[in-house]
Amino acid sequence: MTATVLPLRPAREPSLTAMVDLVAADMNGVNAVILERMQSKVALIPELAGHLIAGGGKRMRPMLTLASAALLDYTGTRHHKLAAAVEFIHTATLLHDDVVDGSGTRRGKRTANIIWGNPASVLVGDFLFSRAFELMVEDGSLKVLKILSNASAVIAEGEVEQLTAQRRIDAGEEQYLTIIGAKTAALFAAACRVAPVVAEAGEDAELALDSYGRNLGIAFQLVDDVIDYASDEQTMGKGVGDDFRDGKMTLPVILAHARGAPADRAFWAAAMAGERATDADLAHAIGLMRATNALADTIERARHYGRRAIDALAPFPAGKAKAALTEAVEFAIARAY
Amino acid sequence: MTATVLPLRPAREPSLTAMVDLVAADMNGVNAVILERMQSKVALIPELAGHLIAGGGKRMRPMLTLASAALLDYTGTRHHKLAAAVEFIHTATLLHDDVVDGSGTRRGKRTANIIWGNPASVLVGDFLFSRAFELMVEDGSLKVLKILSNASAVIAEGEVEQLTAQRRIDAGEEQYLTIIGAKTAALFAAACRVAPVVAEAGEDAELALDSYGRNLGIAFQLVDDVIDYASDEQTMGKGVGDDFRDGKMTLPVILAHARGAPADRAFWAAAMAGERATDADLAHAIGLMRATNALADTIERARHYGRRAIDALAPFPAGKAKAALTEAVEFAIARAY
């Protein structure tokens, strides 16, 4: 086994500022669609949806749709509705995820299921999901509908697989990659891919941006799964150690378990089974991850997918959009530090 | 106030046999699509979905799509996928409803949420919902997509409104009709309306079949809400008195409360608030409903919508399909006896 060296921190802290600036005008259009279409005469719907939608999310996925369109010099506004649809699908899955996981905090705020209860979260999620499809139907592109209905089915499939892998110490890296490829990367890929469809930029551009989004999504989730063991609650906006207590078989656990001595493997088996869930157990777990380089190597895996994402942009001309999309990858990975 | 007379029981017991026979060949096609498209490499998905889909449902909604197509002499097979999509949407809402209501039995069997847990039911519902849209996208009609994405949003809106009306004794008949028009009738209407779209039968046929389905759906739900107070567990396949214990403001409750003496109104307020939930309380509630004609008049309301459904079929020529659709209305109402 070779020793793994932590990659150096980049000279300048990468951020999403370039991307935020690039898409600012379009994002106003997207936000207008989001605000208008989350309304309902049933007051609980905008109240609950607004808690999450207005609640400090980065709008990462719609931003990717807009930045991808900018990369292709698209000058229309069709992508505003589609970016809003992407955000609605994402919000619906967050609402359902929090019910599934019994989460209590997200982005540093109490989750909707804690405030309004699981039933309301399930049903408002369904509403937003339906609204997303209404927006796509209004746009009228069957190709976009195909991309996003397929992504939605894949996401749900990934979530179910994650559920069945939970607390199963025998889940391995391949299964983990399948799960995050479905539950996270599929929507990143779709968010990027709809841009070349509306810009009519051709099949090659679609495949390139799908690849960019998919690899970025995997990198993003890998780093998220590191953060759950390596950050404090304030930084990450959700409870540190949630994955540990939920028995989620994320890559840091898989690597630490696979590389551990017999006693350590027994600890992981007990922890994932839910028998070791105290703060002391979590601290011990993090110690084992550091000793086995599990966290550093998960970040290294994320860098691999990040490089693939950036390489997927090779066919596109240099410029502000390409620079912003490139820095978004660096930002996704730098969150781990 | 005028006395209400219970309508006579029809000479022959109405049944769905004529409709089942009419669509038998097409239903084989629909079932093939359903079986094929509920598959997934994630084994829990077909396992859980199959429990409900293969579990003795009447396939009422896809049957309506097929019978409506037969009424229009449609000879293609496009409607097989669409009828399957309608059934997937329905199944997804049932899975989520059972989570929302914390139900334990449906159609005389244990519910999926009891067997596999709420998280799996939420996520498999999401999967089926996405699959429904994939099937519609494959068919390729934006008009069908618009009808069913709108119906889906309306259903979710109705479910949320039902949730907010729960345990609120001040909910009235108008709100109740809005809720059942959304949560039940919208999908009945959409199931019928997609047939004239694929048959290219024109706007008038669309509006007529939408009206047939919508009114049938309202009649169907009214009768369902009577059955919850007037049947034994075996007949109805779900727990009698579930609505009572859940504090659902259905029409029998609304009428009995509105017509009750002050002491009775106090009983209803306490019961809907969850403070009177024993079997003796339920028996007392049924007694009050009978004394105020609340059950009989709810059935009379159902007959009103049933007549409107049958009248909506007037433009179509007599024949097996029209007879089957007419008898389906009579069947929906006769279930109350």
Main structural class of chain A: mainly alpha
Care to count the β-strands of chain A? 2
Mean pLDDT of chain A, rounded to whole units?
Answer: 93
Largest interface: A-B, 43 and 43 residues
Give a verbal description of the structure.
Two copies of one chain form a homodimer. With 337 residues, the first copy, chain A, is mainly α. The two termini of chain A are 24 Å apart. In chain A, a hairpin with a 2-residue loop joins strand 1 and strand 2. Chain A is built from 16 helices and two strands. Chain A has a two-stranded antiparallel sheet with strand order 1-2. In chain A, helix 12 crosses helix 14. Chain A is globular, with a radius of gyration of 20 Å. Chains A and B meet through helix 4, helix 6 and helix 7 of A and helix 4, helix 6 and helix 7 of B.
State the main characteristics:
disordered N terminus; 1% strand; globular; homodimer; two-stranded antiparallel ribbon; Farnesyl Diphosphate Synthase; mainly alpha; 337 residues
